[in-house]
Amino acid sequence: MTIKALLIEADAIQVGVTESDWQQVINLAASPLVAKGFISPEYSQAVIDNTLSHGAYYVFDEGVAIPHARPECGVKRNCFSLVLLDKPIRFAGSEAADIVIMFGAQDSNAHIEDGIRAIVALLDNNERMAKLRAARSREEVVAVL
Question: What values do phi and psi take at 55, rounded to 5?
Fold first, then answer.
């Protein structure tokens, strides 16, 4: 399944989020995935703990954060969640990000190969990135994807 299909299935697109606490953003990104049973409630805490231990290695110069944890931290199904922030925030001292894509993969190979590759392919387009940042509704995001 594509990122777009997984986002729609999980009802996991949040637009215009005004939050300045990175830990709250992690919890917000996880909430629809927990509600649909794709990840366990402990998954977001695993992402937070990992960030506190190892830094926000998942934040890229383009203003994109891809928070995730290991499959054994509570992934029940491969999934994605998208949060578009009104203003960029820093994740534990990282560069600022305004596009947050949480993902969960059921196994380590899918985690690296499928998850990250799909996200990079999605975001490796400046025009698409600009349209995502300009989107003001879930429907606009789906159209961009």
Answer: 85, 175
Q: What is the DSSP letter of 73?
A: G
Q: What are phi and psi of 74, to 5 degrees?
A: 125, 20
Whether the pTM exceeds 0.90: the reply is yes
Contact 13, 29 (CB under 8 A): no
Give the Cα separation of 48 and 64 in Å (integer): 17
**pLDDT confidence of residue 124:** 82
The rounded distance, in Å, linking the Cα atoms of 10 and 80 is 8
Tell me the CA distances in angstroms from 30 to 12, 14, 83, 125, 143, one per residue in order: 9, 11, 10, 25, 23
Query: Active-site residue numbers?
Result: 68
